[in-house]
Amino acid sequence: MTEPSTTPKLRSRAWFDNPANIDMTALYLERYLNFGLSLEELQSGKPIIGIAQTGSDLSPCNRHHLVLAERVREGIREAGGIVLEFPVHPIQETGKRPTAGLDRNLAYLGLVEVLYGYPLDGVVLTIGCDKTTPAALMAAATVNIPAIALSVGPMLNGWHKGERTGSGTIVWKARQMLAAGEIDDKEFIRLVASSAPSTGYCNTMGTATTMNSLAEALGMSLPGSAAIPAPYRDRQEVSYITGKRIVEMVAEDLKPSDILTRQAFHNAIRVNSAIGGSTNAPIHLAALARHIGVDLPLKDWETEGHKVPLLVNLQPAGEYLGEDYYRAGGVPAVVNQLMGQGLIHEDALTVNGRTMGDNCRGVEIEDEKVIRPYDQPLKEEAGFIVLSGNLFDAAIMKTSVIGTEFRERYLSNPNDPDAFEGPAVVFDGPEDYHHRIDDPSLGITPETLMFMRGAGPIGYPGAAEVVNMRPPAYLITEGVHALPCIGDGRQSGTSGSPSILNASPEAAAMGGLALLRTGDRVRIDLNKGTADVLLSDEELTQRRDALVAAGGYQYPASQTPWQEMQRAVVGQMNTGAILEGAEKYQRIAQT
Ligand code: FES
Ligand code: MG
Q1: pLDDT in tens, 508-554
Q2: EC number(s) on record (predicted)?
Q3: Least buried of 61, 66, 270, 338, by fewest C-beta within 10 Å?
Q4: In the predicted model, is pLDDT for residue 7 greater than 60?
Q5: What's the CA gap between 590 and 392, in Å, rounded?
């Protein structure tokens, strides 16, 4: 290990040990002493390491970080660092109204100010629940001080009557069972609660497991650390090692910009296909790429990722859960399979100072039911496809979750196997959908394509996870479990619905979806990657002119100051839904 005291130019010394401005140094020092830190520590030349704490009572998924931080502290201390732990704005996926998506950019903004404005030489980013991971990584990218991510880990497996119940995924299933009258309210709650047996984040391959796996695939957390379940002793141990490692990273001046290269993002895209990762990943990786200054067009998800097979057998695409994923080898076992096919940029650098190739080479799969060898995948070509047309410029579809029922109903025309067409039923926001979905007068049939609009970053501030709509109850009882769903909102990573989502620009930004009417025929061609309403350009122009004259697409008023502020500057999901303009500020700790 490099001796920390020889590290050149620690930025914290400008606060605590700056002979050129002794007056300010005295002021800064004085107050940081008042809880017991000593002059000797603060002026020792030891690196000052932040722990960006995302755990709290409001964030149950990340709450275990309050415990893990003790081990992180011990690691930092042992390696010769001084610890300053501080809170990050909480983002609980399931608890925040109207949607946790609204707070990713707020937490980002807050963390940028903390990392830039306080005497921190390096930071441990405590990640977990869906949006906490991108928010923390995005902020570390903007500021660009040495940073290492520590996952809180998934919950233990959930069980109900001898079967694995996965968080989130069981909710979608239980809702269908409730709608079909198979279970009552009490059983519904019991079933859902069974999926959350311990501390940690969603045990399915939802957005949390996805983003924590991708943080590791990007090289931003220690190899093998993402999948460790929250309550396991290994989780405590890796917290300690993470604390030790950040001190070394400061000495080595190993920064996010050294790790988050275009190659690293392409590695992450391929890992995302192999794990069956969430449709939220393209949004968050686009945002992270923009904040670190890497060019990552949405189309890269298709060109780099579509052909990669699904190897990880986790719900919602498969059967198993987080504990199984860890026992089977986690991210390194997946990466090693991809490496065997030349699908990984092996020389991408990671936080441990070694390359992705060196970290993962030879890591064997421990259970081939859970992580499949490359030549025995669960599904071929399991990545996303990117669609465009007169309804939107860009949207994505997770093809790995297309099930047999859906394939037989929509993708079985021998002359046209990748295309389907049908009449649209259009909902304006989730409330409209909930009010009307079971109304028989809507005339929804198995041929219907259901549209959700007004659910994008502007229309429903933060973008709602609502595109995966269940069919009306009368169709479910007839055995129709999924209709094609298309929309400008997001979809929970725990949903197994093959929706077309993240459509950009959204209706609220006057994208083509704003012009669609119930009854219009729409054609989707997955092979060509097109989605079009079958109307003439003249008709669409007329509708657009009329809508503009009427004041544009209407959406609900903001309820909080932040909603209004974010709506004014947020970009569309195909480019990360970031606060436009924030990407101008790069590597700001170096300026
Ligand atoms: Fe937090 Fe799923 S709700 S990880
Ligand atoms: Mg989610």
Answers
A1: 999 999 999 999 999 999 999 999 999 999 999 999 999 999 999 99
A2: 4.2.1.9
A3: 66
A4: no
A5: 39
Ligand 1 geometric centre to CA of 251 (Å)? 34
Report the residue among 151, 170, 201 best suited for mutation to probe ligand 1: largest number of ligand atoms under 8 A from its CB.
201
Q: Give the CA count within 13 Å in the CB-facing half-sphere of 183.
A: 15
87 φ, ψ (degrees, to nearest 5): -85, 150
pLDDT band, very low/low/confident/very high, at 254 (cuts 50, 70, 90): very high
Q: Please determine, for residue 6, whether its predicted confidence score (pLDDT) is greater than 70.
A: no
Adjacent-strand bridge partners of 84: 50
- Look at residue 192 and tell me whether its pLDDT is greater than 50: yes
Nearest atom in ligand 1 to the alpha carbon of residue 208 is 4
Taking all residues of the chain, what is their mean pLDDT, rounded to a whole number? 95
User: For ligand 1, atom 3, which residue shows the shortest CA distance?
Assistant: 93
Q: What is the ipTM of this complex?
A: 0.89
Which residue's alpha carbon is at the smallest distance from atom 1 of ligand 1?
Answer: 129
Query: For 235-253, how does the pLDDT look when each residue is reduced to its tens digit (9 = 90+)?
Result: 999 999 999 999 999 999 9
Domain boundaries, the chain: 12-26+47-156+204-298, 384-550
User: How far is C-alpha 13 from the geometric centre of its chain's CA atoms?
Assistant: 35
Portion of the chain with pLDDT greater than 90, in percent: 90
Residue the block writes with tokens 């490359």: 374
Domain 384-550: give its CATH code. Answer: 3.50.30.80
Query: What is the reported pLDDT for 13?
Result: 95
Shortest-distance ligand to the CA of residue 280 = 2
Does 1.10.10.10 match the CATH number of domain 12-26+47-156+204-298? no
Q: Please state, in angstroms and rounded to a whole number, the distance separating the CA atoms of residues 366 and 383.
A: 24
